[in-house]
Amino acid sequence: MTIEMIQLRLFIEVVTAGSISAAARRANIVQSALSRRMQLLEFAVGVPLFTRHPGGMALTEAGKTLQAHAELILANYAAMEEDFDLLRDMPSSEVKLGFAKSLSTLI
């Protein structure tokens, strides 16, 4: 099973918005592209994630399970990004060693 981070982000967007069309507007992508991504996500996990009805969409049990995992994954990913942002801002702790050329013949 291969799931991309963008699929998880868009999945959570659909869950939050309650429909593909509302999520597409919020994510600034066309509805057909978002719908296709959700179809591919359902194909990747092998089960339906939504029940579709005229008023929008509801999560299946599998969808609720994915939502819980997706929220954790996205939160962990955001924490990782923050950690690396901090590490990039830290001063380097490099140690440089050197020795005189005349000592190199003794080693």
How would you describe the overall organization of this protein?
The chain is mainly α and 107 residues long. The protein has a single domain, classed as Winged helix-like DNA-binding domain superfamily/Winged helix DNA-binding domain (Arc Repressor Mutant, subunit A, Orthogonal Bundle), CATH 1.10.10. It contains five helices and two strands; from the N terminus they run H-H-H-E-E-H-H. It has helices spanning 5-17, 20-27, 31-45, 61-89, 101-104; strands at residues 50-53, 56-59. A two-stranded antiparallel ribbon has the order 1-2. The longest helix is centred in the last third of the chain and has 29 residues, at 61-89. The protein is elongated, with a radius of gyration of 24 Å.
Instruction: Kindly estimate the percentage of residues that lie in beta strands according to DSSP.
Output: 5-15%
What is the CATH superfamily?
A: Winged helix-like DNA-binding domain superfamily/Winged helix DNA-binding domain
* Whole-number tally of structural domains: 1
Distance between the termini: 55 Å
Q: Which structural class do the helices and strands define?
A: mainly alpha
Uncertain residue segments: none
Reading off the top of the CATH hierarchy, the class is best stated as Mainly Alpha
What is CATH's topology name? Arc Repressor Mutant, subunit A
Give the number of DSSP strands: 2
Q: Helicity level, as a percent range? A: 55-70%
Arithmetic mean of pLDDT? 88
Shape: elongated
